[in-house]
Amino acid sequence: GSRFANCDFRYASWGIHSHFNALSVSGCTFTGNEGGIRFRSGPLLIKNSLFKDNDIGIRAFRGQAEITGNIITGNRKGIFVREQGGGLSITRNNIYDNRDYNIWVGDFNTEDIQARENWWGSGDPEDKFFDARREPGIGLIHYEPRLTDPVEISIADPGQK
Q1: By the 8 A CB rule, do 133 and 113 touch?
Q2: The model's pTM
Q3: pLDDT tens, position by position, 45-71
């Protein structure tokens, strides 16, 4: 397995690209990249990290991951679940104000996505989901109960090592 803690990933094609590997990411920032993290399989733990101003914040393909305590904002797509997203647990994050969608379910993903107890910003969370509500035959994002206030999240300063 691999572990990244308190790292700063900027202006890359992909900050982290991981396949068939146990991975832990904590206290990291991903800004200005084509994508923050792209992964297949896992298991992954992604926590207390910032995904901001990327094309895609997190991209999962047939993944097993716990995504918790992160700030995911300002990306074109916050989280993109390409295929077999049933192994994802997305909880206690602040996922808001991504330009196109906060979560995008890909057309090959028929499994539902568990994304309960997140803060979605203002407005109706479903407005920023691309799932079975818009495209029959793909998975549905389960987001209730949702949080009414942002999660207090501490992300380490990568300059302080």
Answers
A1: no
A2: 0.94
A3: 999 999 999 999 999 998 899 999 999
**How many Å apart are CA 104 and CA 75, to the nearest integer?**
12
What does the pLDDT look like over 141-152, one tens digit per residue? Answer: 999 999 999 999
Q: How far apart are CA 43 and CA 20, in angstroms?
A: 8
CB atoms within 10 A of CB 117: 16
CA distance 45 to 24: 5
Q: Please name the residue that has the structure tokens 């990306």.
A: 75
Q: Can you read off the two tokens belonging to residue 11?
A: 């202006």
The SS3 assignment for 127 reads: helix
The two tokens of residue 93 are 């994050």
DSSP state of 40: E
Contact 141, 116 (CB under 8 A): no
Q: Which DSSP letter does residue 128 get?
A: G
CA-CA distance, 105 to 109, in Å (whole number)? 6
Q: Residue 27 and residue 158: Cα distance in Å, rounded?
A: 8
Residue 157 has pLDDT above 60, yes or no: no
